[in-house]
Structures are given as structure tokens and as C-alpha cells.
Amino acid sequence: MFRQLTDAVLVSPQISVEDVARAKAAGVTFILNNRPEGESPDQTAGDAIEAAARDAGIGYAAVPINHSGFAPWQLDGMDAALGEVSEGGRLLAYCRSGTRSTLLWALSRARAGDQPDALAGAAAAAGYDLSPVRQIMDALAADKG
Questions:
Q1: 3-state SS of 65-114?
Q2: CB distance 104 to 75 below 8 Å
Q3: Beta-sheet strand order (sheet of 3-6)
Q4: CATH of domain 3-144
Q5: Would you tell me the crossing angle of helices 17-25 and 46-55 to the nearest 10 degrees?
Q6: Averaged over 111-140, what is the pLDDT?
Q7: Sequence-separated (6 or more) residues with CB below 8 Å from residue 67
Q8: Could you tell me which residues come within 8 angstroms of residue 92 by beta carbon, excluding any fewer than 6 positions away?
Q9: Could you tell me the residue ranges of all domains in the chain?
Q10: pLDDT recorded at residue 69
């Protein structure tokens, strides 16, 4: 269920309260919820995931992404979540399918100066396609370089 983008970053489709224990066992120290509340009637509420994470000693934040695109504050939220991951820990970002979380991660990392081709390779290895944001990634990486 959890897909690895890097040694320190995992993405996933919607998680359940029970999945928080699995995340902890996988070394997750911070969970980032990228799913808007009420997006679908069958999703686990963010506050339930947050409570389970806190009980497990895992940090939590919500940076919802709807289908209208990405904004700088959302990239800032991903940056902040990555900054909260403890040494040797992992970030787990989730949304409905893991795609928006992956795209957000890639945009954040491109803005930080990571190479878009390397990001695309990592995403593809996890089963995700960055082509919807590739032009933006290239522009962000060019601005950094």
C-alpha cells in the first residue's frame, strides 16, 4: 500500500486508522494528509487519522489539494512536513490515490533544486506519472539553477 519515492518519503492512497500502526512500523515519523475533507463519503476523516498518529507518536499535518491545481502555500506545506521528519524517519503523504501527494512532493523538490528527471524516475518507480506537472517542475528547477 505504501509506495516509496525516496528512503525518507512514502506516498499512499487513503489510509485508515489501522494503517497508522503499519506506518509507524515502516519508520514513519510524520503523516501529511493531502486529501480535502469530505472528498468522498467513504474516506477516513483527517481528525481520526491525526488522533491515531498523535497516539502513536507520529507528527501530522493536513495540506489539502483539490483538483484545481497547486499553490505555493501547498509546496510550503510539503517543505514543512519534510522538515518535520526526524533523523532516520520517514514521511508518509496520502490522498485518494497517492498521485496528488506525489505531484506535490515533486514540485516541492524541483523548487528546492532537485533534478526533474531524477524526480520523474523516482515517481515512475513508485507507479506515478509526473507529466501533468513536468513543465512546472522544469520551470521551478530552472529558477533555482
A1: CCCCCCCHHHHHHHHHHHHHCCCCCEEEEECCCCHHHHHHHHHHHHHCCC
A2: yes
A3: 3-6, 9-12, 90-94, 28-33, 59-62
A4: 3.90.190.10
A5: 40
A6: 96
A7: none
A8: 2, 10, 11, 12, 15, 23, 26, 28, 30, 31, 32
A9: 3-144
A10: 87
The residue with cell 519508520 is 27
Is the pLDDT score of 144 beyond 80? no
> What residues contact residue 138 under an 8 Å CB cut-off, 6+ apart?
110, 116
pLDDT in tens, 99-108: 999 999 999 9
Q: State residue 145's pLDDT score.
A: 65
Residue type, 14: Q
Mean pLDDT of 109-132: 97
User: What cell does 42 get?
Assistant: 467513504
The rounded distance, in Å, linking the Cα atoms of 142 and 145 is 5
Which residues touch 144 (CB under 8 Å, ≥6 apart)? 110, 111, 112, 113
